[in-house]
Amino acid sequence: MTLTPDHATRFATATLSHLGREYPYKMDLVLNGSEDAKPPREHHPIFHGSFDWHSCVHGWWQILRLARRFPDLPVAADIRARADAMLIPEKVARELAFLGRPYAAGFERPYGWAWLLALHAEAERHGAPWAAALEPLAAAFAQRFHAFLPKLTYPLRVGTHFNIAFALTLARHWAEARDPALVALIDASARRWFADDRDCQAWEPGGDEFLSSALSEAQLMTIVLGADFPAWFDAFLPRAADQQPATLFTPATVSDRSDGKIAHLDGLNLSRAWNWHSIAAALGPAHPVTPVAADAAERHLAAALPHVTGDYMGEHWLATFALLALDGLAD
Question: Is 0.85 topped by the overall pTM?
Fold first, then answer.
């Protein structure tokens, strides 16, 4: 399955409908006094829609990417006009000021950090002033990665927003052309945490996960290890050619898409599709796992793609992960 103009229109139209939708909104905010009890747009003049800050950030990444991939679609003009109005220095400065608040050091760490870097990288692909406006915010989050990774003794292996492997996959993509020191730090951290992992049991999914702990780690290692990845993978998942552990090859069941946490499992199916496609590409056509990985990717995608829109609990974010599954991250 590949990204089509119909997909692009469906995803972008849905996302444009909620990027500026202020309520409902889940704030990531420590109140330091009654003066902090303000509407979301006063704290976040750009990223006050899509239910929460990080979903708004990656919603912007998604629509900018779609506008670049399909510039002649009618919705692309709407995207560019919205970006011209929102991605401006004055609004970015207020987003940046939020990071200086007391108790804001852990704000959106690491998921939102990584998505902001991905948004900046995508904005640079457009002949518009958006990337220059976003650059101070991107630099601030890159610096937070520089400060955080050396003190992160143990990796965050969960299947939710705190997963470190997923965040570093996005952050490293940004850093490759902009911050070689961060690339080196990410690679050293990944090797320190993951290089000796063997025979992963893959006790997943949890009931509210949208990332695969096992496959997010493997995807990061495709980039970090390069030509050494197949040997590492063979030790990490030694029975993958036999589709074991079976849970990694079985799409998750979503029992209630109106429940925001349970709806995460549609995202798990989409992110696993992206993971498996990336792993298959890194292993190469001759590897015995490649055909089963490709098949698993397609089955996970088919299980979730019909449900990207329909209920706001999924609709405010799932199109981003559908885009990853269909089109990847590479330029």
Answer: yes
